[in-house]
Design brief:
This protein folds into 2 domains: 66 residues, Winged helix-like DNA-binding domain superfamily/Winged helix DNA-binding domain (Arc Repressor Mutant, subunit A, Orthogonal Bundle); 76 residues, Gyrase A, domain 2 (2-Layer Sandwich). It is 44% helix and 21% strand. It contains 6 helices and 6 strands. The strands form 2 sheets. It has a 4-stranded antiparallel β-sheet with strand order 3-4-6-5. The longest helix is centred in the C-terminal third of the chain and has 17 residues. About 5% of the residues have low confidence.
């Protein structure tokens, strides 16, 4: 199976079935005769634009970001739907921003932030549901914070 066919299959599975973990997705792919490693599935999910989305009962399952419901294409811009909260400006750490995101979306948000405002960012550390952005200066942090807020507001 070609990579594009595999990515399309992953997209279809996520759209048609509730998939809560990468392990669940690996099992569903095995049912289609594909044996993949966790690293491969993680890269494929990232390429397809798969993010965690909330269900009506409060759980999170894999789904596609709103921008990526069509065939496999360039990365979506998930920031407007993925960011839950920005930290307030706090004395002593004015050059840092803590960003809470929907679980599983931090890698996509990180790429977006670096692409859009990388010249203002010294470092960006991401885990599953949050990011720590360290700006080059307090003024850069203010700029990025306002840019994020504007982006979210303009796209809701």
């Amino acid at each position: 199976m070609k990579k594009t066919e595999r990515l399309e299959l992953i997209r279809e599975i996520v759209l048609e079935q509730e998939v809560g973990t990468q392990h669940d997705l690996l099992k569903k792919l095995e049912e289609h005769g594909l044996k993949l490693t966790q690293a491969t599935i993680s890269r494929d999910m990232n390429e397809v634009g798969i993010v965690k989305i909330p269900t009506q009962d409060g759980r999170y399952v894999y789904g596609l970001s709103k921008e990526n419901k069509q065939p496999i294409a360039p990365r979506p811009k998930p920031i407007k739907t993925s960011i839950l909260q920005l930290s307030p400006v706090t004395g002593g750490i004015e050059h840092m921003i803590h960003i809470d995101v929907i679980p599983g979306n931090s890698r996509l948000v990180k790429k977006f932030l670096l692409k859009e405002w990388g010249s203002h960012i010294f470092s960006l550390i991401a885990d599953d549901d949050s990011l720590l952005l360290i700006a080059k200066s307090p003024a850069d942090a203010d700029f990025v914070r306002e840019a994020i807020i504007t982006h979210i507001r303009d796209h809701h």
